[in-house]
Every structure is written in C-alpha cells, then in structure tokens.
Amino acid sequence: MKRISLALSSILLTSATALAQLNPVWTSIDLKVAQASHVVIGHIAEMGEASGSAERNERQQSIVLVVDETLKGEYVSRLPLAIGHDRWQQLDREKILCSTCAAHTHRLLVTIRPMQDHPSSVTDLDNDSAFDVSGDLRVLPTGDAILLSAREEVLRSPGVVDEKTYFAWGPSQTFMPGTKFHGYTVYVPVDERQESLAHQVLQSQPAPAGVTRDRKNDRAIAALALGFFRSPENVQLLKSLLDDPQIEHDAMGQLDYPVRAVAYGVLSRWGVDVPKPVTRVKIQEPWDGKKPPE
C-alpha cells in the first residue's frame, strides 16, 4: 500500500467522515476482509441463551461456529463467538439464531477483527436476498458472488491489516445507479482499483453546465481519491483540474469550485508548486442564478 502524508490522510478521512454523516454508509466486503485477522466459512453448531435487554441495546448471544473453510488466519475447527446487539438483531431477524429454522444450517461468511471475540461481519451466503458491494464498486447480488469477492480480497490482503487505509466513495452518478447502493457512501480498501475508478470518473464525466445548487456528480471525490496515488500522470491530471469549470452554490454569499479546491489541496500536499486557483467567488444574496466573473 502506498504511503501518504499525515496531512493528506487527515483531509481524506475528514472528507470520508463528512460523507458518512450525509448519507447511509456501507462497508464493502473487500474492506471487511482486508481489515480482518480471521475470515472463515462455517455453520452454527451450538447456541447459548440470548441475554441482555434489547431495549437498551445490550442483547447478546454466544454461538459456536463449526469452521468448514478458513480463508484467512489460523485454522481452528470450532470457533466460539459472542454475538453483540447489532449483529444479534440482524441474525435474529434473518432467523439464523433459531435452532428450528432452516436458516440455522446456512453457510456463514464471518470476518473477525484482530483482538476481538465477536464477528465484525456475518454474511448468510445461502440467503436468497444476500447482496454486498466489492472494492471496485461492483454490486454482488448473490452469496456466491460475495464469496468470490472475499476470496479475491484475501489474495490481495493475506496478512492482518487492521488499520487498512480506506476511501469513501460518495453517492455517484457513474457507479451503481438504480441499485441498492445508489445514494450510499461506500467504504472500500485503498488499492489500484480506486485509482482506476478515479480516472474513469474524470474521463467520463464532464463538468456540469452552469451553476449547480448541489453536487451533480462525483468528480471532486475522484480527484480526492487520486491523493493516494502520486505519479507523474496523476500530477498532470490534477494540474489540468486547476481551471475546472464546475461551480456550486454551497453557502450563502459564495460560489465554490470544488474540483479545483481538491486538486490544489492534493498537489500542495505533494509539494508540487502551482499557482493557487480561484476556488471561491463572493456573490450578493439573493442570488440571481448567474455565474459571476472571477
């Protein structure tokens, strides 16, 4: 994984947090696998009694998983797990924690973060409605597709990478339109796939015509993603965005050029000497909707 400066890491993760506050969040199966110390496929052999108050978000249940296959981490044949409230709600709703229900025998894909005794994610691979998203923003519509993506990510991240750098792709006009994930902020591991996606966005999406009142595409997010991938090609690409025409009415009394601002921020953190572009223009309110001269 490429190293990035602390300052750049801060701005990227701050932007990711801001996105998450605005939109529902989904962590891709690839990131779950990359951050896990153990990834296994198994089925429930034993269940303890559920305890704790559901009203106070304290409901828990212990289970023992018979491990059918270990994708990542040290092999164990049986894995005791504590199912916390959020996971308990999910599994109880899907009737996996029901010894008399058919789903009790389903294959479960379980990821566990380092130093934890509870799963960070549980996916019912045999559920007819299983779905997820991959690290390159492909919708995974079945349990088999999810499992294949998990296997591929294990090859990418075979070791324990608890603090795997991640990136948050915001709601996109390019990726996953009309799917379950349209409108979500999706967390993905940082690797060459994000560089490829950023290039795809910037090459395929023209700047919106005129002044917009909200974000019509994800070009600024794509420019942000390039901050992880310094190369001569990306330096030139970001330089070409310093006069990007996309302009937005984001606050009272001002118009912003978001793509210019991100490109300049990344280049500055890389130590590339470029003139600071116009990134904000003052306007009089009430605004007439016209773009003012710079």
Task: Label this structure with key terms.
294 residues; 22% strand; disordered N terminus
Task: Please tell me about this protein's structure.
The protein has helices at residues 6-22, 29-34, 85-93, 143-156, 192-204, 219-225, 232-240, 258-269; strands at 25-27, 38-47, 61-72, 78-83, 108-112, 121-124, 132-133, 139-140, 166-169, 185-189, 211-212, 247-251, 254-256, 280-282. The protein has 294 residues and is of the alpha+beta class. It has a domain at 24-164: OB fold (Dihydrolipoamide Acetyltransferase, E2P), CATH 2.40.50. The strands form four sheets. Strands 4-3-2-5-6 form a five-stranded antiparallel sheet. A four-stranded mixed sheet has the order 11-12-13-14. Helix 5 runs antiparallel to helix 6. The model is unreliable at 1-11 (pLDDT under 50).
List the helices and strands and how they pair.
Layout: H1 6-22, E1 25-27, H2 29-34, E2 38-47, E3 61-72, E4 78-83, H3 85-93, E5 108-112, E6 121-124, E7 132-133, E8 139-140, H4 143-156, E9 166-169, E10 185-189, H5 192-204, E11 211-212, H6 219-225, H7 232-240, E12 247-251, E13 254-256, H8 258-269, E14 280-282
Parallel strand pairs: 1-10, 11-12
Antiparallel strand pairs: 2-3, 2-5, 3-4, 5-6, 7-8, 9-10, 12-13, 13-14
* Percent of residues in beta strands: 15-25%
CATH class of the domain at 24-164: Mainly Beta
pLDDT below 50 for ≥5 consecutive residues: which ranges?
1-11
Largest sheet: 5 strands, antiparallel
Taking all Cα atoms into account, the compactness measure Rg is 22 Å
Write the H/E string, N to C: HEHEEEHEEEEHEEHEHHEEHE
CATH topology of the domain at 24-164: OB fold (Dihydrolipoamide Acetyltransferase, E2P)
Structural class: alpha+beta
Work out the helix count: 8
DSSP strand count: 14
Question: Helical percent range?
Answer: 25-40%
The CATH architecture category of the domain at 24-164 equals Beta Barrel
